[in-house]
Amino acid sequence: MPEPSSRRRLDQPRTQRRLTLNIEPDTFGKLTERVARFLGTGTYLFWQTLIVIIWIVLNLTAVTLRWDPYPFILLNLAFSTQAAYAAPLILLAQNRQDDRDRVSLDEDRARATQTKADTEYLARELAALRLAIGEVATRDYLRSELDKLREDLNTKPRKGKGKRGEPRRPEQEAVEEPDDTRVHRTPSHGGHPG
């Protein structure tokens, strides 16, 4: 970790003692933004216009109060001074706004990159799911296969019943047990089947 400068260290005396004006850049920047915002408002324009009108009227009409005669040199000097300070204040405010916009743009760019990556990932996953679903038997596919099997079963004759190629009738579809699989029971002692 770098050693703090002697200006920040409180355990060592300063080598030079001079009176300096310590203005934090952020505080000064905020002040310039407030002034620049105020210079662009209708309130400021209204009060400036009112002061200029009063200035001109008093210097033209009031003979005893003339502090700035007709060419209004003092008024021009006030306007020049105002312009000399307003322009740099507005430029400082614009620079701070540019810095904020740059940070915001970087954040937006990072967010857009992340969103694009997420979208591409989701598109790949969706494509993989579509391929996987394409390999799985769907309900419609199973129905069509079952219908084909039914048709095949209906068109096959069973042991001489019905003609070949003729569809089976519903009474022929019942499953019949062959004769040799039947169980023959003999009556038991009481004549009742056991």
Question: How does this model look, in words?
Answer:
This protein has a domain at 25-107. It has 4 helices and no strands. It has helices at 25-39, 42-61, 73-135, 139-155. The longest helix has 63 residues, at 73-135. The radius of gyration is 50 Å and the shape is elongated. It starts with 24 loop residues before the first helix and ends in a 39-residue tail after the last helix. Keywords: Membrane, Transmembrane, Transmembrane helix. InterPro entries: DUF1003 (IPR010406). This is DUF1003 domain-containing protein. Residues 163-172 have a biased composition (Basic and acidic residues).
Summarize this entry quickly.
This protein has helices spanning 25-39, 42-61, 73-135, 139-155. The chain has 194 residues and is mainly alpha-helical. It has a domain at 25-107.
Q: What order do the SSEs take from the amino end to the carboxyl end, as H and E?
A: HHHH
How many DSSP-defined strands?
Answer: 0
The DSSP helix count reads 4
Mean pLDDT: 80
Helix content: 55-70%
Rounded to the nearest angstrom, the radius of gyration is 50 Å
- The rough form would be described as elongated
Residue share in β-strands: under 5%
Distance, first to last CA: 102 Å
List the uncertain runs: 180-194
Reconstruct the topology from this structure:
Blueprint lengths: L24 H15 L2 H20 L11 H63 L3 H17 L39
Helix pairs in contact: 1-3
Keywords:
single chain, 194 residues, mainly alpha, 4 helices
